[in-house]
Specification:
The complex is a heterodimer. Chain A is mainly alpha-helical. Helices cover 61% and strands 5% of the residues of chain A. In chain A, strands 1-2 form a two-stranded antiparallel sheet. Chain B has helices at residues 40-52, 67-72, 136-143, 146-152, 156-159, 168-178, 181-204, 208-254, 256-293, 295-315, 325-334, 348-354, 365-421, 446-542, 575-598, 623-636, 646-649, 652-657, 690-693; strands at residues 2-11, 14-20, 29-33, 78-89, 92-103, 113-124, 130-131, 153-155, 547-551, 557-561, 566-567, 612-615, 640-644, 661-670, 680-688. Chain B is elongated, with a radius of gyration of 53 Å. Classes of the chains: A mainly alpha, B alpha/beta.
């Protein structure tokens, strides 16, 4: 897998707010991925004006296998192209588009918060996932993993 | 350049001919006799063709190959045309060869189509080394500038035009080129261009941006310094308040009944500080959780849908088509399957997994799918873990907040109790404490001290400390801004340095150009005077008395009436014009030779040895002038080759030039003597002077 993939992205003011001022995110990479997933979840994508001076390198994801799983899934769902599962350049590009949309949402919700936006972000996350829903999703994911597992052993 | 031999193979009517030129200093003339149409002009063109691939004043120039050879060739056969010129130049023998292979295209094709060609220059040095210049065309032009070739290899019919009013450009160009003036002109023009380039660069590298950036940086720096001063004041105030509170605390412990309360309060405050630290720690943990795992909730729909899609593909049997060997090896090495089952060495499970190894490399989709499915359990667990940890931390923080609130209540109670005591301060040892230092006018009771303590604590917690936090943050932001501006300033300063450099270079280019222009004026004048003198000397020897050849200030060749000093337009038919032209060419060759032999130290004009090759040069001259020119020409050039008809040669020309002739050749033209009745010219050496033969 190519580790040289890179993508410029729009690093709006909310990045500085959440990373440097509020210290919520450890770094801009975490904030970028969070913004991208928010953008995807809320269906907010910026297809034109999503590039900027900042640059996201695929190598930043090298020690974050869950970031890679999220990137592949979002890119695949957005493009419906199987290549998206294996193409880091395409994944970064799709993430950058959703990140630009997600950053707008974060700006709207937390851009003017004085002090810390910690409680607001926690509430925001919690509001998008009930325990019941998580239970259903867990069962579904378990079943899929089990099906793959069974097929692997049966076919041997 | 001293010509040694010209060889022609299948070149026009010359099927196979060699001409060896006289190179003897005293017998420096080679005469080639030929009747009209016998090939004199073709030989002149052979020089131009081999050196520059040019043909002039020749009928059907597209027919380079010998007609007989083309007629005899079958369609598709090739005829090779070759001209070789051997000459000495600056101590080295040069062999210049141009060759073309022409393929016959049809039965009546006399031109042929070029299918191959080469141009080779071999330079053989005195010690026998052979060099081949990488760019032979350019190399030859350095030896014989093509602009001057028409002068050195000239056609007699054309030469009379040189001194005509309409052809002065060629005179000017020839003098300028010969004397190196064109090189100087190009240098001046180039310097002017360079100056313009640097001027444009200067416009692009203006310093306004730098000034603006420096001003902005100074303003931000000034703001930062103001905040730093403010921070310093606030920090001092904080330290002072903390010290004063400490002093009051100390005083309170001196009073009997407040001592115990004060000690309890200090303990409670210490406990509260610890709890507040725990809350800070929990908040940090919450931040880390949001940063590391917060995205999972929002990514889950995409992951879930993708997993479902992959599961569909699996059900359809599209994946896994095969598994990546490396991935299987990794699983075995880790000792655990993607489902979590142990993969002990040689166990049935391990064998089952290993059986998926394929000799065919996976196309990546299978691998990506398996990797994603492999992550599902972890994604679930991390996402659930996120909510569990958040809930646990929030609950713990809530408990801590309650504890802190309770401690704060107890601390407040103590404060109230102290204030309510209303005890006098007789026991206080206030000698060591200046009330002024505590900003107190008078202390009558402990309640006064407590009130003062509370006021200070309130100011410290609600005013000074937040101010300090805010100021520190602002200062950091200013520092970031300054750092950013300084990066921009560095970039602008680099540009400024480039601008300074461009300005200096422009000034240097201008100064050099002006110097060169001045020198050019002087050099041009001296060149003109020298050419004028030499041409007039030559002209005087051969022309009718009363006339003089003049190179004007505008580098035009004019014939003047010597008696009246005014220019006259000599009739075209008059030999004076041809004489003037011959004088001009001969004089230039002579000046170049003088310069070369004198080895004068000028960078622009080294001079050189050039031959004069003349085709029918005496056509328009009467016998008297023919004789005069014939006597002078052998003296002007190191080597003279004349192509003449018998009638042009006989009489005064033979009489005056004859003593200088080293070799005689005859061109024997036979209109039907070649292959299948085609025209052909043989070259025959008639005589060679014994001095030359030696």
């Amino acid at each position: 897998m190519s580790t040289k993939a890179r993508q410029t992205y729009k690093q709006s003011e909310i990045y500085e707010t959440l990373v440097d001022e509020h210290d919520i995110f450890d770094n801009y990479i975490d904030c970028f991925v969070f913004a991208a997933t928010v953008g995807y979840h809320e269906g907010r994508i910026e297809t034109e004006n999503y590039e900027g001076d900042a640059e996201m390198l695929w190598m930043h994801f090298s020690s974050h296998d869950l970031y890679r799983a999220a990137a592949a899934s979002i890119a695949y769902q957005h493009t419906k192209n199987p290549e998206a599962l294996t193409n880091p350049e395409l994944q970064l590009k799709v993430l950058a588009k959703f990140a630009a949309g997600g950053a707008e949402i974060l700006e709207e919700k937390f851009g003017d918060v004085k002090g810390t936006s910690r409680e607001g972000i926690l509430n925001y996350i919690k509001s998008h996932s009930s325990e019941e829903e998580r239970g259903r999703e867990n069962e579904m994911l378990k079943e899929i993993a089990r099906s793959f597992d069974d097929q692997m052993f049966q076919s041997s | 350049m001293k010509l040694e031999r010209l060889s022609l193979r299948n070149f026009r009517q010359f099927r196979d001919a060699d001409i060896e030129f006289s190179r003897n200093q005293n017998k420096n003339v080679t005469v080639i006799h030929g009747q009209n149409g016998s090939g004199k002009t073709t030989i002149l063109n052979a020089f131009l063709w081999v050196l520059f691939e040019e043909l002039q004043s020749i009928k059907k120039p597209e027919r380079i190959a010998t007609q007989g050879e083309m007629v005899a060739a079958d369609v598709g056969d090739t005829v090779t045309v070759e001209v070789e010129l051997i000459f000495d130049h600056e101590g080295s023998r040069h062999e210049v060869r141009r060759r073309k292979s022409l393929q016959k295209q049809s039965s009546d094709d006399l031109e042929g189509m070029e299918v191959d060609g080469s141009f080779v220059v071999e330079k053989i040095t005195e010690d026998g080394n052979v060099d081949e210049p990488t760019n032979p065309e350019s190399y030859v032009r350095q030896i014989v500038p093509d602009d001057l070739a028409e002068l050195f290899f000239f056609d007699g019919e054309y030469i009379s035009d040189l001194s005509g009013v309409d052809n002065q450009d060629e005179i000017q160009d020839a003098i300028r080129q010969m004397m190196g003036l064109t090189l100087m002109e190009r240098s001046i023009k180039h310097l002017d261009w360079v100056e313009g380039q640097f001027r444009d660069e200067l416009k692009d590298l203006g310093s306004e941006e730098l000034q603006s950036l420096i001003q902005e940086r100074d303003e931000v720096e000034s703001e930062k310094e103001a905040r730093e001063r403010e921070l310093k004041d606030k920090t001092r105030e904080r330290d002072r308040l903390q010290e004063e509170i400490g002093t009051i605390n100390e005083l309170l412990t001196q009073v009997g009944e407040t001592r115990e309360l004060q000690e309890d309060r200090e303990e409670l405050e210490s406990d509260r500080d610890e709890l507040e630290d725990d809350v800070d720690e929990i908040n940090d943990d919450l931040d880390s959780l949001i940063s590391d795992k917060g995205f999972l909730t929002f990514a889950m729909p995409a992951i879930k849908e993708t997993a479902a899609s992959l599961d569909d593909l699996r059900e359809q049997g599209k994946i896994p088509s095969r598994l990546d060997n490396e991935f299987i090896d990794e699983l075995v090495e880790q000792g655990e399957c993607i489902c979590g089952r142990p993969l002990d060495e040689e166990s049935p499970e391990c064998e089952a997994v290993l059986s998926h190894k394929s000799d065919v490399t996976s196309d990546g989709l299978d691998q990506a799918s398996i990797r994603l499915i492999d992550k599902l359990d972890r994604i679930r667990s991390e996402r659930d873990g996120f909510f569990e940890k958040v809930d646990r931390l929030l609950k713990r923080r809530s408990n801590l907040d309650e504890d802190i609130e309770e401690l704060s209540g107890q601390i407040d109670d103590i404060s109230t109790k102290i204030q309510d005591l209303g005890q006098g301060v007789d026991d206080l040892d206030t000698d060591e404490v200046s009330l002024d230092e505590l900003d107190l006018d008078a202390v009558e009771s402990v309640s006064d001290l407590e009130a003062a303590r509370n006021a200070k604590d309130d100011k410290l917690s609600n005013e000074i400390k937040p101010d300090i936090t805010l100021l520190e943050k602002e200062i950091e932001e200013y520092k970031d801004d300054i750092s950013e501006l300084e990066d921009k300033i560095d970039e602008a300063e680099d540009e400024q340095q480039e601008a300074d450099l461009a300005r200096k270079r422009m000034q240097v280019a201008k100064a050099v150009r002006e110097e060169l222009e001045l020198y050019y004026e002087q050099f041009q004048q001296s060149i003109r005077e020298r050419a004028d003198e030499k041409i007039d000397q030559t002209f005087e020897k051969v022309a009718t008395k009363g006339y003089e050849a003049v190179i004007t200030d505008d580098f035009e060749l004019r014939i003047h009436d010597r008696q009246h000093g005014t220019p006259i337009e000599v009739d075209k038919s008059r030999g004076e014009r041809q004489i003037a032209s011959l004088s001009f060419i001969g004089s230039l060759v002579d000046i170049a030779r003088e310069q070369y032999e004198a080895d004068r130290d000028t960078d622009y004009f080294d001079g050189g040895i050039y031959p004069i090759v003349m085709d029918s040069p005496f056509g328009a001259l009467d016998n008297e002038h023919r004789g005069e020119v014939s006597e002078v020409l052998p003296m002007l050039a190191d080597q003279v080759i004349v192509l003449v008809t018998d009638s042009q040669w006989e009489g005064p020309v033979e009489e005056r030039m004859g003593p200088h002739v080293g070799v005689h050749y005859d061109l024997d033209f036979d209109e039907n003597g070649g292959i299948e009745g085609s025209p052909i010219t043989d070259v025959t050496e008639v005589s060679r002077h014994k001095e030359v033969a030696d």
